[in-house]
Amino acid sequence: MEIDIMTLFPEAVDAMLGISILGRAQERGHIAIRTHQIRSYTTNKQMQVDDYPYGGGRGAVMQADPLYRCWDHICQEAGERVHTIYLSPCGRVFDQQVAKELKASYERLILVCGHYEGVDQRFIDECVDEEISMGDFVLTGGEIPAMALADCLCRMVPGVLPEESCYTDESHWDGLLEYPQYSRPEEWHGRKVPEVLLSGHHGKVDDWRKKECYKRTMTRRPDLFSRFDETSLTTKHDRKVLAEAKAEWAAEQE
Q1: 3-state secondary structure the chain
Q2: Which residue from 9, 158, 243, 249 has the fewest beta carbons nearer than 10 Å?
Q3: Count of CB atoms within 10 A of residue 88's CB?
Q4: How far apart, in whole angstroms, are the C-alpha atoms of residue 197 and residue 195?
Q5: Which residues pair with 36 in a beta bridge?
Q6: Per residue, what are the HEC states of 134-161?
Q7: CA–CA separation, 41 vs 73, rounded Å?
Q8: pLDDT computed for residue 173 by the predictor
Q9: Cβ(130)–Cβ(91) below 8 Å
Q10: Is the dihedral of CA 104, 83, 135, 162 positive or negative?
């Protein structure tokens, strides 16, 4: 997967996405994340990328032309129009299902990071294919959302993580929250690791983890659990585990 990020702060983005797991994945050629300094595509000596908004009001708006020049350079380099996402509080809310959709649909993406009061609507109309939001809140710029989106997509690329279960077993993949995790020592501050995790019985461990996924989701995100498709449980054993989880959860609420 290739991701091009248009930003006023490429150093900040590179510093985060060029280290650890994603940094190693880039070195091995599994993914490519490139940042592009929008200021480099201005036509004035001041490298100005913003101006006052028509109609009045506070702040400034990023101009369409430097954004377009940067976007066009990337598309020319790719040899085709690249699916372009503007990180915006006005877009559809990003979640794991959106991430799966993007990963399955596109091998290359352009992410546009806005700043100030936003970007000229004419650039959005001409070059942006969709807007995506991280949630119902506002940030000072699009860099943090762009990094979050890139990280989420890239970790699903084969070779980035050791194996597929590294992300399919985590929260939200199947509409549930992840089970609790424990490490050494077996007892810490009087708190013990659940006995089942020390049993060495893989079947019992799997059942415990699945039940904890159900119970945690019911407690913390009942909205998610209400959308969980119980018909996806095709075996009698899986349905039994869900029933036990519901019973245990109900008992814990009393």
Answers
A1: CEEEEEECCHHHHHHHHCCHHHHHHHHCCCCEEEEEEHHHHCCCCCCCCEECCCCCCCCCEECHHHHHHHHHHHHHHHCCCCEEEEEEEEEEECCHHHHHHHHHHCCEEEEEECECCCECHHHHHHHCCEEEECCCCCCCECHHHHHHHHHHHHCCCECCECCCHHHHCCCCCCCCCCCCCCCCCCEECCEECCHHHHCCCHHHHHHHHHHHHHHHHHHHCHHHHHCCCHHHCCCHHHHHHHHHHHHHHHHHHC
A2: 158
A3: 21
A4: 5
A5: 6
A6: CCCCCCCECHHHHHHHHHHHHCCCECCE
A7: 9
A8: 67
A9: yes
A10: positive
Distance CA 68, CA 80 (A): 15
- The pTM of the full predicted model, rounded to 2 decimals, is 0.86
Express each pLDDT in 72-117 by its tens digit. 999 999 999 999 999 999 999 999 999 999 999 999 999 999 998 9
